[in-house]
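FIELD: query
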Amino acid sequence: MIFSAHDITHMTSALALAHEALFLTSPNPRVGCVIVGTSGLVLGSGHTQRAGEAHAEVMALQDAQAKHHDVKGATAYVTLEPCCHHGRTGPCSDALIQAGLARVVVAIQDPNPLVAGQGIARLRAAGMQVDVGLLEVQAQELNIGFFKRMTHGMPWLRMKVAASLDGQTALDNGLSQWITSAPARDDGHAWRARACAVLTGIGTVLEDDPRLDVRAMATPRQPALVVMDSQLETPLTAKLFGPPRPVWIYCARDHAGRRQALEDQGAHVVCLPNTSGKVDLAAMLQDLAHKQINEVHVEAGHKLNGSLLREGLVDELLTYLAPKLLGQGRGMTNLGPFTTLSDVTALSFHEVTQIGPDLRILARLSR
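FIELD: result
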C-alpha cells in the first residue's frame, strides 16, 4: 500500500494525540484518532481516556458531533486497530461502522488476542476500505510495553541509571546527590510517570528511604511501586508508603507477622521464592503482567540491576551520563568479571539526547 502525503500528515497528527495520553491510559494502549472529511477538513479528533472511559475513535466521533460535522464518507486515521470486543467500553469498530465512515487507516494491528485483526475484518466486512501499516514503527514504540505484554506475557522493563561519564552511580562512601543535573532528574520523573510500575530493591529502601513517586511534573496517576524484599525487611515507617498508589512487595520467605504488619500499612505482599532463597524475578514480572502492568521502570542499586541483566529480563537502559569523573566509586551493576568479550552484555543505541548538561542514552539489549 502506498500512502499519500496527506495520509502521513493525518496519521502523524493521530500519533501526536496518542502521545498526549502517555500518562493516562494504562493498562490500555495510548491511541489517537483523527477523522478527515472528503474535502480534507479535519472533522474530529481525540485520544483514549482513562481505562473504562472512551477510546480514541469514540472521542473523535464525539468531537465531530460537537462541532456539528457530518462524518459520513469520511476517513479515520487510527494509531491502533479499532477494538471489536465488549470490555469496559463497546467495540470501536462498530462505532465507526454506525457513523458511516468510508475508509479507516490503521497504523498497526492490535496484538491483543481479543482483537488481533478481527477489528479490521469487521470493518472490511461492513464495506469499508481499510489500509494498514502507516507509521507502524512509531505506533508500536508508543505502546511498546502493551505489545510485549500481549505477545510475551511480560512487561517491558526499562532500567534507569544516573551516572558519571566513567560509569559511577555514587562515590565510594555512597554519596550520589546529585551526580546529574536538575533537568535530567526532571526528565527521569517523566519516564517514571509513563510507567505502570516503578521497581526497586530493599537495599535502596534501607539506604535511601526514597518515595519513588512522580513529583517533578503533574500526572493524572502515580505508577505502582514494586519492592524486591526477600526477607520482608521494609520498615513500616518507610516513605514509600506515603504516596497514594498500589505498593507490591515481593518476598522469598513469608514471615506471617511481618507480612501482616506490611499489609496493614497498605502493601500487597507476594511470596515468589526461587531455588536460591531469593525472589524469582522472572515469575515476579509474569505476575506483574497478570496485573496488567505494561512498563516497569527500574530504579535500583547495582545488585538488583545486575540480577535483572544476568537473567535476561531487561529490555532497555535509560542512562543519564553527567560530564563528571568520579573515579573509584559504585558502578551501575555488579556484572562480571568476564573473561572473554563474547560474554559481555551487548547493547544497541536507540536514542541519544542532551538533557541540560547531561546525556540521556536509551540503549536496548541485543537479543
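FIELD: remark
The first strand starts at residue 32 and ends at 36.
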